[in-house]
Design brief:
The chain has eight helices and three strands. With about 200 residues, the chain is mostly helical.
Length: about 200
């Protein structure tokens, strides 16, 4: 299994929605997933070297690997989507696609907030390659966007570690603050890359 590249997240370090303590702890958790993925990948390589007799052992290990890798990729998307509050709004083809998919930017934001409030693990805005529309998804675990052939453009971490230190059990103000810190320009770049 290939090594996971661990980029720096300078914009996340500027995110006003979360305290420096939460940002530091969150990055440490992310690096723990990177380390865990490396360990699990080494175990997988050893089991695969044993051949067909290792099939039963590989099954549970694959679940652990997909969870670790999902946590890495979701956190990378989450960290990269956030920055300091600048009062930005979606623009260009992203805004056009939001309007096509949700009828208006405010309706998209309402749908995103409702999706995030229901979620236990993650919420994503993803571009569906078949329907050529945006959709907000949620899932209770890190190992998977729940719809095939949809590319996530933005992720919101809804696990308690993302907000409990700053907001206690009240997830709603965390979601509001995070949504104000979304880097729409970065999300637009991802959309343009996906549509090419």
């Amino acid at each position: 299994m290939p090594d996971v590249q661990s980029p720096t997240f300078e914009s996340f370090e500027q995110c006003d929605a979360i305290s420096p303590t939460t940002r530091t702890n969150h990055l440490a958790l992310y690096h723990g997933y990177v380390k865990k993925y490396g360990e699990l990948s080494a175990q997988m390589a050893a089991l695969q070297a044993r051949g067909p007799s290792a099939i039963a052992d590989i099954s549970s290990l694959k679940g652990d690997i997909t969870f670790a890798l999902g946590a890495i990729k979701n956190h990378q998307l989450y960290f990269d989507s956030l920055g300091a509050e600048e009062g930005q709004e979606p623009s260009g083809v992203l805004k056009d696609l939001i309007v096509k998919s949700f009828h208006s930017v405010p309706q998209y934001l309402v749908d995103l907030k409702q999706t995030a409030l229901q979620g236990r693990g993650w919420a994503w805005t993803a571009y569906d390659l078949d329907q050529r529309r945006l959709f907000n998804f949620e899932a209770g675990a890190s190992n998977g966007l729940p719809v095939w052939n949809a590319v996530p453009l933005m992720a919101l971490d809804l696990y308690g570690h993302a907000y409990f230190y700053d907001y206690g059990n009240n997830k709603a103000p965390y979601i509001e603050a995070i949504m104000r810190g979304l880097r729409w320009g970065r999300i637009l770049e991802r959309l343009e890359a996906v549509r090419k």
